[in-house]
Amino acid sequence: MLIEFNVQNFRSIKEEVTFSLVASADNSLDNNLIKTDLLRDNLLRSAVIYGANASGKSNVILAFNFLKIFVETAHTFQKGTKINYSPFKLDKKCLSKPSKFEVVFIKNNIKYVYGVSLNSEKIIDEYLYYYPKDRKALIFERKDTNNYRFTIDRKEQKFISEKTLDNVLYLSNSTQLNYDKTSEAFDWFKDNLGIIGTTDHPRLIDYTIHKFSEDEKTKKFILKALSEADLGINDISVSIEKILIDEIPTPIRERFKAVMSGGDRKLEKIDIKTIHKVIDETGNEDYVKFDFKEESEGTKRLFSLIGPWIDSLNNGRVLIVDELDTKLHHLLNVFLIKLFNDPTQNKNNAQLIFTTHNTNLLDLDIFRRDQIWFTEKNPSKGSTDLYSLIEFKPRKDKNIQKGYLAGRYGAIPFISDDRIF
């Protein structure tokens, strides 16, 4: 479970901003809360981020994504490999300052705090704390790149630190060297944090197909979700065929060989048919098959999301989606969100974070005030501010959508009245 995320000097984010899933004292929509004995406060099951174009919504998501990918891959870096450092560029002073990230999360009922600061050349500071028996304890602390401090397993950790390059995360390298105290935190990034960008990716559809084919229970869940979404799909037929690269026509084969190495060098040919029920003129039922490519763009988008959705709900993952509303009707957005907010569907305390432009979701029957966030571009600095609706203390009977569109909470584009033509 995610508790809090902090980021500074990354893309449009200059000063440190904090995104929190810690619930406020708001006593509405109790089902939207995760209650845990581990924390004094409850956590939120979901949160939404609004903002004008170019206000920095996606950069908040990209910060999550950068940290996840870097943690997962840093151990593969060679000496001299550049880090994908993206500081705030509108202030020259920031170009010589590190980007900073900190995430607070729960893994296997233990709270962790992991932080790192870096530039394109090296890791500057890095630390990992945890709270066994609800008391803060240090796993490692790294300052000025190579100045380490350990309070446990000193001999083993010193050996690992000496084998950690300046541009490599100690968290990643120590996990690869089988140090179990850091592996839990590493696994949270790898296994418990999922991120979906704005562009539909064929792999998402393939992922849903594989989840569909895994077992009958998952298949029923997916079909039920598609049925609830009222897409007219009664069943799905899937065929997955393994193809050896050597069986592919020569020009295409050479391309694949250039980007693939090792393994059994096999590809998959996936054929998807959707099955729709119709009633003929005599009142009899009939079933018609469609190629998946004949379905609407909204159906394809929902189908690409439903696999990761179900996987997150079943395994209690944090799922982050940029522009959830892309190609989806408002009611499909509500359907997907309610799967996370409903404790009877979300039994494993999964969490959803997403950005959107769909103001119809600014509804206090769907979200609590502390679940609604905004990004706004600071007009004098060009940097991103991130803040929660709860800071405005709106009444619970307030029309949030109307107030947002009227500019009461900021985070909307300023459009001048000047004529273009």
UniProtKB/TrEMBL annotation:
Residues 47-363 form the ATPase AAA-type core domain. InterPro entries: ATPase_AAA_core, P-loop_NTPase. SUPFAM superfamilies: P-loop containing nucleoside triphosphate hydrolases (SSF52540). It comes from the Archaea. GO terms for molecular function: ATP binding; ATP hydrolysis activity. This is AAA family ATPase. It comes from Candidatus Ethanoperedens thermophilum.
